[in-house]
Design goal:
Keywords: 2Fe-2S, Acetylation, Iron, Iron-sulfur, Metal-binding, Phosphoprotein, Repeat. This protein has 3 helices and 12 strands; from the N terminus they run E-H-E-H-E-E-E-E-E-E-E-E-E-E-H. With 176 residues, the protein is of the alpha+beta class. It has a single domain, classed as Rieske [2Fe-2S] iron-sulphur domain (Rieske Iron-sulfur Protein). Strands 1, 2, 3, 4, 5, 11 and 12 form a 7-stranded mixed β-sheet that branches. The protein has a 5-stranded antiparallel β-sheet with strand order 6-7-8-9-10, with no helix packed on it. A hairpin with a 6-residue loop joins strand 7 (87-91) and strand 8 (98-100). The longest helix has 13 residues, at 161-173. Bound molecules: FE2/S2 (inorganic) cluster (FES). FE2/S2 (inorganic) cluster binds at residues 69, 71-74, 92, 94-95, 97.
Length: 176
């Protein structure tokens, strides 16, 4: 989710360099101008030469996550945004998996008692499946800080060079 300029100032104030609201932290990567992202709604970018990231704008908020769905590499930039049990999700266009925008959790519909008719279903979490990255805005410029949590997250499977080359090759062959 988006961090405000105040967040940047606060984190800068604890370092040795003087705080500045016009300088992003060093580990961030420029994505684009906020006005362009808001206009486009979704932007994808290869960040730091190693990560395909989707940055999207919804309801005044910016979010960033791995671009390919944890399930089978679906193109999340084409997914709809819907709310499930009060949680905003991107719905993968390939097999309709739901992924929360803020945490990257996979949601599924559970049935507690299959003998009770009509069936009552509940939205439950499978845990974090999609790697979420931090978005920061400085003076109208939008940056992403990659989530470097060392623990593997399922969407990592579609961020390898091998997958990228196979995926891109497939798209080229099919004229996409
Ligand atoms: S690839 Fe996203 S739901 Fe299957």
């Amino acid at each position: 989710m988006l961090s405000s300029e105040e967040d940047i100032s606060q984190s800068s104030s604890s370092s040795l360099s003087p705080p500045s609201s016009s300088t992003p932290p060093l580990s961030t990567h420029f994505i684009g101008r906020k006005e362009d992202i808001v206009k486009a709604g979704r932007v994808t970018k290869l960040v730091n030469g190693c990560r395909d990231v989707l940055v999207l704008h919804h309801d005044g908020q910016l979010y960033a996550m791995d671009m390919r769905c944890y399930h089978a590499g679906g193109a999340l930039e084409h997914g709809d945004i819907e709310e499930f049990n009060g949680r905003l999700c991107i719905v993968c266009p390939w097999h309709k998996y739901k992924i929360t925008l803020a945490e990257g959790e996979g949601l599924y519909q559970a049935v507690d008692n299959p003998t009770v008719k009509p069936l009552r279903t509940y939205w439950r979490s499978k845990g974090v499946k999609q790697r979420i990255h931090k978005v920061t805005e400085v003076n109208g410029d939008v940056y992403v800080t990659l989530n470097d949590l060392s623990e593997a997250i399922e969407s990592d499977n579609y961020q390898t060079e091998k997958y990228r080359s196979v995926f891109l090759k497939g798209h080229t062959q099919h004229g996409k």
